[in-house]
TrEMBL record:
<feature type="binding site">
    <location>
        <begin position="75"/>
        <end position="76"/>
    </location>
    <ligand>
        <name>pyridoxal 5'-phosphate</name>
    </ligand>
</feature>
<keyword id="KW-0808">Transferase</keyword>
<comment type="function">
    <text>Catalyzes the reversible conversion of 3-phosphohydroxypyruvate to phosphoserine and of 3-hydroxy-2-oxo-4-phosphonooxybutanoate to phosphohydroxythreonine.</text>
</comment>
<dbReference type="InterPro" id="IPR015424">
    <property type="entry name" value="PyrdxlP-dep_Trfase"/>
</dbReference>
<keyword id="KW-0718">Serine biosynthesis</keyword>
<dbReference type="InterPro" id="IPR000192">
    <property type="entry name" value="Aminotrans_V_dom"/>
</dbReference>
<dbReference type="GO" id="GO:0005737">
    <property type="term" value="C:cytoplasm"/>
</dbReference>
<feature type="binding site">
    <location>
        <position position="171"/>
    </location>
    <ligand>
        <name>pyridoxal 5'-phosphate</name>
    </ligand>
</feature>
<feature type="binding site">
    <location>
        <begin position="238"/>
        <end position="239"/>
    </location>
    <ligand>
        <name>pyridoxal 5'-phosphate</name>
    </ligand>
</feature>
<comment type="subunit">
    <text>Homodimer.</text>
</comment>
<keyword id="KW-0032">Aminotransferase</keyword>
<keyword id="KW-0963">Cytoplasm</keyword>
<feature type="domain" description="Aminotransferase class V">
    <location>
        <begin position="3"/>
        <end position="349"/>
    </location>
</feature>
<feature type="binding site">
    <location>
        <position position="41"/>
    </location>
    <ligand>
        <name>L-glutamate</name>
    </ligand>
</feature>
<keyword id="KW-0028">Amino-acid biosynthesis</keyword>
<comment type="similarity">
    <text>Belongs to the class-V pyridoxal-phosphate-dependent aminotransferase family. SerC subfamily.</text>
</comment>
<dbReference type="Pfam" id="PF00266">
    <property type="entry name" value="Aminotran_5"/>
</dbReference>
Length: 361
């Protein structure tokens, strides 16, 4: 039986990448050592690091004015590091609340001493089934405006970015390199890698170099929380996650073969459309999200009652469609169809759901 993994993260990785890892696990680049054993101070690793950074910037169409950090601590640590490092002039940050992970980002920013985190738009009242309307102008002056480009739990995503003159910061964890944006519109992007890029244990921060030398940058931050200190040491202030960076490198190479972000985003559109079209035509299943703001990556859906949801999940699991249970805060089902989920996986899932519906009328 072919298994399809619809988990929200850690998530499916490209099969050719896993095969390559298996093939070269005992001997990395003819070194006679495993990638799991090599030093982060070795030439082998410093070359790998430079190559990974260059590939990522190329895929994102970013120039010399951007730097990339390869960190640990997850996207969750960035909820703290972002305000700590860049809410340093006005000491105020604007947040758009589009769901669970935005709320977590706002809560953590509010804990940073001296920083005020304001919610400037929210879609809480609609149950987060849409992206909030963004005010045309921000009334106050802020160090940055923070958005969550893809809401992993609620299944919404920004199709257009807010028009703003305030520096734009994004938690892009769940649609990083899966949806096309003009990345130069952002001053800072962060993403946990465990959805579209690598196994858990790596966090990407892409930021304008200018932020690293800003005169308001605090001088006395703990080094591991300081973007400037981390950038000065090529993310190797302590031992970086060597294996995860190696995997990210392979995934980026795979992404190049898929036509880069534009190519994969087109395929993701096709995959998502297939599933949404089915859900919209179904009498049993329902996706509650406003159609224009649906995520390409995470597709939540519900039947009319919890018992039927559970039955679908049980039957799907038995048929090899794994991890379809919705997040505990919203229930129902959720299919995460990241870059590495093949089109056939979605096609087979839709056929399965169709059969289930036909049998349960
Ligand atoms: N932001 C978003 C949008 C997420 O989906 C997640 C994880 N599901 C997080 C933040 C938290 O990520 P991490 O576990 O890497 O801290």
């Amino acid at each position: 039986m072919t298994i399809y993994n619809f988990a929200a993260g850690p998530a499916v990785l490209p099969k050719p990448v896993l095969e390559q890892v298996q093939k070269e696990l005992l001997d990395y680049d003819h070194s006679g050592m495993s990638i799991l054993e090599i030093s982060h101070r070795s030439q082998l690793f410093t070359d790998l690091y430079a190559d990974t950074k260059a590939r990522l910037k190329q895929l994102m169409n970013l120039g010399d004015d951007y730097d990339v950090l390869f960190l640990q601590g997850g996207a969750t640590l960035q909820f703290t590091m972002v305000p700590l490092n860049i809410a340093t002039k006005h000491h105020r940050a604007a947040y758009i609340d589009s769901g669970h992970w935005s709320v977590r980002a706002i809560e953590e920013a509010g804990k940073v001493p001296g920083v005020q985190a304001d919610i400037v738009a929210t879609s809480k009242a609609s149950g987060y089934t849409e992206i909030p309307q963004f005010p045309d102008v921000l009334k106050d002056t802020y160090d940055y405006l923070h958005i969550t480009t893809n809401n992993t739990i609620e299944g919404t995503a920004y199709q257009q970015l807010p028009q703003t003159t305030t520096p734009l910061v994004a938690d892009m964890s769940s649609n990083f390199l899966g949806q096309q944006y003009d990345f130069t519109k952002f001053d800072l992007i962060y993403a946990g890698a465990q959805k579209n890029l690598a196994p858990a244990g790596l966090t990407i921060v892409v930021l304008k170099k200018q932020l690293l030398t800003d005169p308001n940058h605090p001088k006395n931050l703990p080094a591991m929380l300081d973007y400037t200190a981390l950038a000065n040491k090529d993310s190797a202030l302590n031992t970086p996650p060597v294996f995860q960076i190696y995997m990210a490198n392979l995934v980026l190479q795979w992404l190049e073969t898929q036509g880069g972000v534009a190519g994969i985003a087109q395929l993701n559109q096709k995959k998502a459309a297939l599933l949404y079209n089915f859900l919209d035509s179904s009498k049993l299943f329902n996706n509650p999200v406003k159609p224009a703001q649906r995520s390409l990556m995470n597709v939540p859906f519900l039947t009319p009652d919890k018992a039927t949801d559970a039955k679908v999940i049980q039957a799907a699991t038995a048929a090899g469609f794994l991890n379809l249970k919705g997040h505990r805060s919203v229930g129902g089902l959720r299919a995460s169809i990241y870059n590495a989920m093949p089109f056939t996986g979605v096609e087979k899932l839709v056929n399965f759901l169709m059969d289930f519906e036909a049998q349960h009328q």
